[in-house]
Every structure is written in C-alpha cells, then in structure tokens.
Amino acid sequence: MLEKSKVLAKRKDAVHAIQFVIQLGNQTDWRDEPEPDFPEGRPIDIADQMNCAARGVREWAVKEFGEDNIVGIDLHTDESSPHFHVVVTPIKDGKLQAKAWLDGSSRVAALRKRAWQAVNVHIACEYKPGAAGGAPHDPSKAAGQMPVPAPSILDKVTGHAKAKKLERENAALREENDQLKQALFSRQKGRYSADLLEKTKQAELAAEIAQKALGAAKQELLSLKWDAGQTVKQLETQIGKQGAEITKLKGYNRQLADQNNELDEKLRELMPKKYQGPRP
After folding, report:
1. Is 49 inside a domain boundary?
2. Other CB atoms closer than 10 Å to residue 246's CB: what's the count?
3. d(CA 42, CA 33)
4. Is the pLDDT of residue 65 over 80?
5. In the chain, what percentage of residues exceed pLDDT 70?
6. Which of 92, 93, 74, 91 lies closest to 83 in space, CA to CA?
7. Are 4 and 91 in contact (CB under 8 A)?
8. What pLDDT, on the 0 to 100 scale, is given for residue 59?
9. What is the strand order of the sheet 83-88 is part of?
C-alpha cells in the first residue's frame, strides 16, 4: 500500500498515510468500577462488544477509503480503554488526496459523523457533533499504570446513593422474579388441572362405553335364555304329545289283543268237539 502511495506522490511532503484512533467509550471498557480489593476494576468479558465494534470500524474504513487502501486495523489495549488504530492511504481518483478528507473542520466533522454512523449500526455509541477529539496517546495511562485516587466525599455519597439504588433495583427484580415464578407455578398448576380433567373425561367416556357393552351383553344373554326356554317348552310339548300318542296306541293294542282273544273263544265254540282242544 505504502509503495503505491510513494509512486503516486508528487511532492516530498505529500501525506502517504493517515492514522485514525477510534474509541467508543464505556461500551468497550474492559474493567468494572474500582473497588478496594480491585483498584483497577474487575476485568469483564467484552468480546462480543469488541467484535461488533471491529465489524463497524472495518466496514467504515472499506466504504470510506476502499479495501485496497487499508494498511491495517489494530485493536490496542495499552490504555484505560481499548481503541482501534486504523491506518489508510488517502488515495482518491488515482491520486494522493488527504485534503479530500482532512481539509477543513467541516470535512473532518463529516468524516467523524460517517464513522459514527457505520459503527453505530453494530454497537450503540455516543456522537457529539463539534466535540473535541480525544487526548493524545499516552501509554502511561494504560490499565494498572494510573494510581487510583482516594474517593472524595461526593464520590462516597454518590456511591452510597448508587448502592441504595442498586439495592432497590435488586429488590424489584427479586419481586418480579417471585411474581414470574408464581405465574409459572399457576400456569403449570392450571395445565396439570386441565390434563387431569381431560383424563377424567376420557375415563368417564370409557366407563360409559364399557357399561353400554355390558348392558348389550346382558340383553343378548337374556335373549338367548328366552330362546332356549322357548325351545325347551316346544320340546316338552312335543314329548308330551308323543307320550300321549304312545299311551293311546298301547290302549288300542290292548283292545285289539282282547278282541283277538274273544274271537279265538268264539271260533273254538263253533268248531266240532273233536277238533276242540287246547290250541297248539
């Protein structure tokens, strides 16, 4: 990149590269507030915020200067807050034109606004038009290098007020949590009652179906018994009739036997005496 800018340079004092320092503020502070045991503040995880900020910074640099003109984008953590160093070659229309971005306060202000707009899409950050730029780079202000001043009376008062506010917020959150737990319990209880009611209805329906099936089976059994009874009665009647006929036939048989005996006697009387004698 820099070799290309040297070729394009027409003057010895031409600007070959521009460095921008972009710091977002509290959104990317990697340490919590100072504490007696941790005067520098406890370290916190800000990987997600830094990744979002890095995407915004890179998109701004590519859109503003072109991907081919970006020398490097670095994340520095050598001061109290992390910040990005963006180095670019100010090439526009095939020429070195640093003035296209830095010529006058209005162009610089417009450049800052465009940078904020690009980064703000990925991570919310403050922007104050016309505000002065940040302080010069000072490694002595890196985290752990600066002494932590003793808290003033105002700091103690505001700290106490802040602690009370946090206590109130914590109590409110606890109450909200209890309400959510109660709502969840009520919802689960209602769901359990609904399930129990549904199961009860299903059991009642199954019992009703079983009762109907039992009634039908009993009715069928009674019908079979009645049919069997009728059949037995018919058989008994037929047997009775046949018995009567047998008795009647036996009577006829006796009458015929008696008549036959009488005829034998009469024949014996009519026959001559020499022929009379006992029947063989």
Report:
1. yes
2. 10
3. 7
4. yes
5. 71
6. 74
7. yes
8. 94
9. 18-22, 83-88, 70-76
Can you tell me the distance from the alpha carbon of 22 to that of 82, in angstroms, rounded to the nearest whole number?
Answer: 9
Measure the N-to-C terminal CA separation of the chain; round to a whole number of Å.
162
Q: Which of 123, 149, 175 is the last residue of a domain?
A: 149
Average of pLDDT values for 210-239? 80
Tokens of 227: 């049919």
Residue 247: which domain range?
A: 231-275
Which of these three, 149, 178, 211, is where a domain ends?
A: 149
As for how many domains the chain has, the answer is 2
pTM: 0.45
Q: Residue 272 — very low, low, confident or very high, per pLDDT cuts 50/70/90? A: low
Q: Which one-letter amino acid corresponds to residue 132?
A: A
Predicted pLDDT at 163: 66
DSSP 169-218: HHHHHHHHHHHHHHHHHHHHHHHHHHHHHHHHHHHHHHHHHHHHHHHHHH
Structure-model confidence comparison of residues 206 and 72, the more confident one: 72
Q: Report helix, strand or coil for 76.
A: strand
CATH of the domain at 82: 3.30.930.30
Does residue 194 form part of some domain?
A: no
Provide the H-helix boundaries in the chain.
2-8, 47-65, 99-102, 105-120, 153-270
